[in-house]
Design a protein that fits this description.
Elements (H helix, E strand, L loop, with lengths): L1 E4 L6 E7 L2 E8 L6 H9 L7 E7 L16 H15 L4 E6 L1 H12 L4 E7 L21 H5 L3 H8 L2 H7 L4 H13 L5 H7 L3 E7 L8 H6 L3 E5 L6 H4 L1 H9 L1
Helix pairs in contact: 2-3
């Protein structure tokens, strides 16, 4: 495990790392998740083994710190991720981001192009969402106090499936809520616009069971390789690990 300060007050973002050749691959989890849980089995596959791999937990999630005075916007998370990569001596990495982590990866590439050479975004959020839809969990529909101390966190844990609940229950409720609100709010320009304009190789994975990807034609026209994964839902790395690994490998 390694760590780097990210907020000027000593709070640390942490990651686990597997040694290997470069360029590094950096795996970034979704809302309420943890990177090793969702991606270690992918990085260990024979077609991907041997590469330096970092499994980063964003602030408020997993093994990273959870400061109460942190904003937890997508930009904040991207800057914390940049601090981790700077401390790790990473440049020109392949970033693999799932769901909210895909949105963070896009913002990172927009803000710190020196850190990113390639993006693989798995069902990443590209547009602002109404609060009841953000993360498909309804977290941001709650007022902060109601979610953190009024029972909202427990109600959401009962609502989501057991896989998501297993990692969400160890995420900080305050950080989780603020992150969900930041995800619903989105960025300016939008994550979609950033992705369309980034000057790096970009792959977007959409699970077949999640339906059609809005704006797929425009993404393709902008040079994004859009891959529809048969038989997969939102968690493509669990539903179709071979297809997920193939997209990461390129």
């Amino acid at each position: 495990m390694r760590q780097a300060a990210f907020d000027g007050r000593g709070s640390c973002i942490r990651w686990t790392e597997a040694e290997g050749e470069g360029p590094a691959r950096v795996y970034v989890h979704g809302l309420g998740a943890a990177s090793t849980v969702y991606h270690a089995h992918i990085a260990a596959r024979p077609e991907l083994a041997g590469r330096r791999s970092l499994f980063v937990d964003l602030p408020g999630h997993g093994i990273s710190d959870r400061p109460a005075d942190f904003g937890y916007t997508l930009e904040d998370h991207a800057d914390a991720l940049a601090a981790a990569l700077d401390a790790a001596g990473v440049r020109g990495a392949e970033i693999v981001g799932h769901s909210m982590g895909g949105a963070v990866a896009i913002v990172l590439a927009h803000r710190r192009g020196d850190l990113v050479s390639r993006l693989v975004v798995a069902e990443g959020n590209l547009d602002p969402y109404p609060p009841t839809r953000a993360g498909s969990s309804g977290i941001s529909a709650y007022e902060e106090a109601d979610f953190v101390t009024g029972g909202g966190h427990a109600r959401v844990l009962e609502k989501v499936g057991p896989t998501w609940a297993a990692t969400m229950r160890i995420a900080d409720p305050l950080g989780l809520h603020r992150t969900a609100c930041g995800l619903a709010r989105g960025t300016e320009p939008t994550m979609r616009r950033m992705l369309e304009e980034l000057p790096v190789e970009r792959v977007y994975l959409q699970g077949e069971l999640s339906g059609e990807l809005p704006g797929a034609a425009a993404l393709t026209a902008a040079g994004v390789k859009v891959v529809r994964v048969p038989g997969a839902g939102h968690n493509i790395m669990f539903d179709a690990p071979a297809a997920f690994a193939a997209a990461v490998r390129g």
